[in-house]
Design a protein that fits this description.
Elements: H1 2-15, E1 25-26, E2 35-39, E3 45-50, E4 56-63, H2 77-84, E5 89-90, E6 96-97, H3 99-105, E7 109-114, E8 119-126, H4 130-142, H5 148-165, H6 169-181, H7 195-200, H8 203-213, E9 219-225, H9 229-240, E10 264-269, E11 274-282, H10 290-301, H11 307-315, E12 322-328, E13 333-341, H12 346-360, H13 367-384, H14 388-400, H15 408-416, H16 419-429, E14 436-442, H17 445-458
Parallel strand pairs: 3-9, 10-14
Antiparallel strand pairs: 1-2, 2-3, 4-8, 4-9, 5-6, 7-8, 11-13, 11-14, 12-13
Helix pairs in contact: 2-5, 2-8, 3-4, 4-9, 10-13, 10-16, 11-12
């Protein structure tokens, strides 16, 4: 028996990576039995959320860089670099480590996304393939091996993506609006870039960009699922502890953009219905009242019990395509409500939206409305935490913006909000002089001919 126990203990020790790791800091969260944070000497912060019994592990390495960091003449750099990191890399000890291929061979799913302020790389693997998956992901991000030829090949791939995006009416409308709201700012340009900007990017540009932004202090790591915390921490320390960037500090986010004074943005193009939205710009994650605006979103337009749904859909039957959304960046956010409506009924649709925005900034929501909004929010959080992907999505945003890792902070804040606090936030953000309108309407007569020609020539509205 003693011999068997000794062999078992020895096997367990051999299964662990040899590298030591910094102390694990326990994070308190209701329902999370093993949630930890660790910071490497390089500044890389890692969160490990152990969920025994999940049978899979989600791994992510995120970098605080996106299209907002690009020079205007080199738009598309962040996304092009994302593509290039899927090229074969050199892992620890100079052994060839084709990261993408190895993760796939282990049965894992691997991908990446580029956004305004983040580029993240992630894989989802079975529990027994965790080490293989993590090593591949770490090598992909920290041990690049692309060359000038790879840049030329991937440039052509991205150019094809950009060409396809020009045939997407939603993308065309979105960037047409952003170009007018944030003139001369990287926010006004497509994340994929333009043909002219993509063709300017050189191998030297990409290498310099990688060296500047892909540093441990400007990144974070995340592991969620069926994994033992000590083993995960040791593996992160072993694979990323030697990652060295040109800088030992985080770059920080871009400053708030200059905003055009325009309040109404109207387009006539090749659509059958009127697409109309009313909204405001907010301070994004920099705002202390972000939870108040989240509760207002639910009162205004989230679900069949919301004010706008009852009026627009149930009472007047104006539309079945309606939503209220909130999107936050580090220092900028968008809060908007809108939908699609028949042109003959568009005026009534617009009037109701204006009335409800005015009402929520003029009088407190009822106690019952706020209580329902809290319950809906809590239920959404519970559903989000049913999957590793959902948990990772929540934790990832917290890591990106240095927010509290525990979900308890948001739930507790929502529980303590009062109708008067929602009213104060609404009066601050939703005053009439801050409202902006966006309308995409059907082109008529000669305008329709011009819309066709303009779209075919410029691929924009």
């Amino acid at each position: 028996m003693k011999r068997a126990a000794l062999l078992t203990s020895l096997a367990a020790l051999l299964a662990l990576p040899a590298a030591a790791h910094p102390p694990l800091e326990r994070i308190s969260e209701r329902g999370a039995l093993a949630l930890y944070k660790m910071e490497l000497p390089s500044g890389l912060v890692t969160v490990i959320d152990s969920r025994p019994g999940r049978r899979t592990v989600y791994c992510e390495i995120g970098v605080r860089v996106g299209s907002r960091n690009e020079d205007l003449e080199l738009a598309g750099m962040s996304h092009l670099l994302e593509h290039l990191l899927f090229k074969e890399g050199e892992g620890p000890g100079a052994r060839k480590n084709p990261a993408f291929s190895k993760i796939r061979a282990a049965g894992g799913d691997v991908n990446a996304t580029t956004e305004f302020e983040r580029t993240n790389y992630f894989c989802d693997v079975t529990s027994d393939a965790f080490e293989e998956g993590w090593r591949g992901l770490a090598s992909m991000v920290s041990a690049t091996a692309f060359d000038a030829h790879d840049v030329e090949v991937e440039r052509q791939v991205v150019l094809q993506e950009a060409a396809l995006d020009k045939n997407n009416p939603v993308a065309i409308a979105a960037y047409s609006v952003l170009k007018r709201v944030f003139p001369g700012d990287p926010l006004s340009q497509p994340i994929l870039g333009y043909r002219k900007t993509l063709e300017r990017i050189t191998y030297a540009d990409v290498k310099s960009y990688y060296g500047r932004f892909y540093t441990p202090a400007n990144s974070y790591a995340l592991v969620v699922g069926d994994v033992e915390p000590e083993r995960a921490a040791s593996l992160v320390a072993e694979t990323l502890g030697g990652w060295q960037g040109l800088s030992h500090r985080a770059e920080g986010f871009a400053p708030p953009p200059q905003v055009a004074p325009d309040r109404v943005f109207s387009f006539h193009t090749l659509v059958e219905q009127v697409y109309y939205a009313l909204g405001v710009l907010t301070p994004g994650h920099a705002a202390s009242d972000h939870m108040a605006t989240e509760m207002m979103r639910r009162v205004l337009g989230d679900g069949k019990t919301s004010r706008l749904y009852r009026r627009l859909v149930e009472q007047e039957g104006l539309t079945t395509q309606f939503l209220t959304g909130k999107y936050n960046l580090s220092n900028l956010g968008i809060f908007a409500a809108g939908g699609a409506v028949d042109p003959d009924r568009a005026d009534r649709f617009k009037a109701i939206l204006r009335e409800e925005f005015d009402r929520i900034a003029r009088e407190p929501v009822t106690t019952d409305e706020l209580q329902l909004a809290r319950r809906l929010f809590s239920a959404d959080v519970v559903r989000e935490f049913e999957t590793n992907d959902g948990i990772a999505s929540f934790r990832s945003e917290r890591l990106l913006y240095s927010l509290p890792i525990s979900r308890d902070a948001d739930i507790d804040t929502a529980a303590k909000l009062t109708p008067q606090e929602l009213l104060a936030a609404a009066q601050l953000h939703f005053s009439k002089e801050k409202l902006r309108e966006i309308e995409v309407a059907p082109a008529r007569g000669l305008g329709k001919v011009w819309a066709v020609l303009h779209y075919l020539i410029f691929k924009s509205i």
